Amino acid sequence: MTEQIDAGMVARQVAESDELGEPVPGRREVGAARRRKEDARLVTGRTRWTDNIQLPGMLHVAFVRSPMAHARITRVDVSAARRLPGVVAAFSGRDLAAEQGGLPCAWPVTEDMVLPDHPPMAVEEVRYPGEAVACVVATDRYLASDALEAVEVDYEPLPAVLDMTRALAPDSPRVHPEGNRAFVWKFAAGDADAAFRDAPVVVERTFVQQRLIPTAMEPRAVVAQTDGDSFTLYSATQIPHVLRVMLAITTGIPEHKLRVIAPDVGGGFGSKLQVTAEEVLALLLTRRLGRPVKWTESRSEGNLTVHHGRDQLQRVSLAAGADGRLRGLKVDLLADMGAYLMLVTPGVPLLGAFMYNGIYKMDAYDFTCTGVFTTKMPTDAYRGAGRPEATFAIERLMDELAAELGLDPVEVRRRNWIAREEFPYATIAGLTYDSGDYAAATDRALELFGYDALRAEQAARRERGDPVQLGIGVSTFTEMCGLAPSRVLGSLSYGAGGWEHASVRMLPTGKVEVVTGSSPHGQGHETAWSQIVADALGVPFEDVAVAHGDTGVSHKGMDTYGSRSLVVGGMAVLRACDKVREKARQIAAHLLEAAADDLEFTEGSFRVRGTGAARTIQEVALATFAAHDLPDGVEPSLDSDATYDPDNFSYPHGTHLCAVEVDTETGATKIRSYVAVDDVGRVVNPTIVTGQVHGGLAQGIGQALFEEAVYDADGNLLTTTMADYLIPSAADLPEFVTDRTETPATTNPLGVKGVGEAGTIASTPAVVNAVVDALRPRGVTDVPMPCTPQRVWRAIQEAAG
Amino acid sequence: MIPPAFDYVRPSSLPEALAALAEAGEDAKVLCGGQSLLPLLRLRLAYPSVLVDVGRLPELHGVREEGGHVRIGAATTHDEVLRSPVVRAGCPLLPLATATVADPAVRHRGTLGGSLAHADPAGDLPAVAVALDMEFVVASAAGERAVPAGEFFVDYLETALRPAEILVAVRVPRLGDGWGFHYEKFHLTAQAWAVVGVAAAVRPGGAGGDRRVEEARVGLTNMGPTPVRAGGVERAVRGAPLPGAGAGGSPGGAGDGVRDAAALADEGTSPPGDLHATPEYRRHLARVLTRRALLAAAA
Fold it and tell me: Where is the FAD-binding PCMH-type domain (chain B) (predicted)?
């Protein structure tokens, strides 16, 4: 009964079912729900993933990884492994010590930050379970894996350091000789002590942002290759450009001799915003052995050694007046760095520092973050990076404040949020929010949700003591994304800028090639960029091709993370298009024997005002190619580059409402309904935006209800498989109701805002607020994440005394 | 996720398979759908020298009525169980539980026999086997023998199967008329293992306001190293009043007797503690879920 699935047929059907065909004259592409150009090839596998790459003579590397959280390496013997069939080489960390350098951290957040050496392969000591201590290179992956068992490693155990609070005690065992405190970073605005003094209401809470494991569908994979002089590294990475610079610095391979290629990449969520040990080691191995070397992680290997996310302890307090108006906020954060500082590890909690005030007005704000070393996998960027943590804290506090005052949680927010007419608004955290309309998004969400009816049902269930209680959670969020103005990054000591680059080339036949410095890993850049270009140059959507992810093709870029691609990279594309159009205008004017100022550009044609004379941009492109009759001093080219550096961050916002049914007998939580009304400004492609919101919600709900990386008392990671580390599937999630309000950004010409992280940032507090709301009459005021059935049941038991 | 090296044989008849297994000795493993064994191999938690693939043996296929039993070949996939009219009519509890096993992909590969012989107490089907008193038909070079469910599950991942034996089929006794069935599975995600599961069969008697439990069978998933038959519940629930048909299990009133009986569900069990549940929480769940399963089966 098995039907043979023909990938070609599927691809054809997908393509033909699309409305990719006929251009509609006069219709703007920006705003159209175009199907994604890239999907037919992605979903049929007719594309190139790193693990699909097969090169002649390719070898496979496998890593021996530490089974201990913390230990001194007393002996590594790879000699037996070297003798096994198919094994070409085997190395210990000591074998590579002289040339392996250290993995980089690009964000020294304070001048006195402790920045320990981070060898790609451990030499003296292992500091987290899964750290590589040796490798075997063999002619196939199976032989390499088998040979790992022949490598002998002796360890002298050292104490694991697991709990952040205890790690800071003076008598704690140390992860590094310099101590466990990596840095202390502070921010203060207004007089917080005054705000808290005599405040009628102070709400104080401690929240745990549990450790998460980013679970991209495509595992990490690397292929390194050399011709003896120059090197090519294929990697499932979000950041081919950043990686190239960093690898050149780390390995000593000159930048111009190193090409980095991110082929199609199957998801990242920040986990592929990294310079990994395996990338460095693959390059070193190919340099040593002269043959291509491939590594693809297994899911268990990934759970151990993909950088983890979140893991913060938040001690927060909020001071308010009796009317619920906020006075001040204090945040004292412990952030678990793990064993080392990786690419942006210390900066992640600071990306949240400017977001704890959320959409609210207040007089004072105090923020302290202490980075703490533990013997765990380093943490780093994970979807939202700092902003979900901040949003969770403030949105949980707002619900607690409402409960404290006996006010509706929506009403408390309404009394505190920035009003539409107050934009641009300088926040207490020092940012300037350009635009927003929190009331509009909230009103729309309440309407779609049926807020009053659900509150009535909640009351009825409470009244009759229904074992299944209803809870309603509110989250009115904003976030700062579109990373980032270079001068701001500089002021935060980040090691690079936040600009983006694009090239636009008009070909002789009028088709357009775009080279973008953004590096998509599932977002749909090819489609969105085509829509922008189609409008800017008056060409059909189908006539645009987008190249990305290969430093040999796209020499300059800052890549994709922090919801930056559209609001930074898209603007670079738009600017490059503007330059191309102005070049074309000069040539068209010459051909039409008119002044350039007399030309208008509509629907792809330059027209002389008041006459019928016109040239299409395609005609101009061909004339430019021929170059027979160009104006004096004009080069025969319709190509342009642009590098765009934003003036400000992007501030999407929205209101998310969640209703849960909590089975008080078992503790099980079921999401009954979820409404997300997001305001991401103008929208280039509503289908892509909705997809981003859906995926973001799934990940935010994952943190609220399902996901947690667990280390045991000895420091072993217990959640190494997907049977232990639970992520929700479609079957575990409700039908999402999504809608948008549209308050255009004032900081870019398209009026767009970032959307990649919004759903994740907004949803976690909405869900947890709903769970707590369901149980509040029973005396429950918090449930630690993830709110698993057992945790909910225990919270009920504890509240009952 | 790379398994260690092993040999693989795919015999074409049961006698050949038994010979291959006997020859390979103790380090051999029987492979059928592979949904439990292959993950163990990929995680290098098992190092068998030989895999004897019994998936295509004709003797292990087929579902038929046989006297008072339904005989189901060990290599019958979960999906075939779900689609079999004979199974649905003769032992409806089995498809109810089978429908909750993992996801469609797994159910198309995984087999009833494989799942039972793997004897993972977190699997859904062992509890059904003990609740229904299935009989395990086991073959060796010496011939066939029958093992009752109560004796088949010996310990965690351990059964009464001897090294050179193959599970050929199970015989499921038909319970007769008037029984209702329910499998109550508590799991954290749709595809996850059961934290606790309860397989219940109830024969109600009486009518209207005087419905009572005449007889019940209860099997528990993941409440110990082997599936558990909740004998105490079965005895205590006899005669317990039931809510009127269709009224469900609202607390208070009719159903109290069932609640009291279900409170015995964790008696004599030794539930495991793991990442997702402590033994104490499992005991609590067993009591709640047993009540729900009994009431749902009786409804």
Answer: 1-177
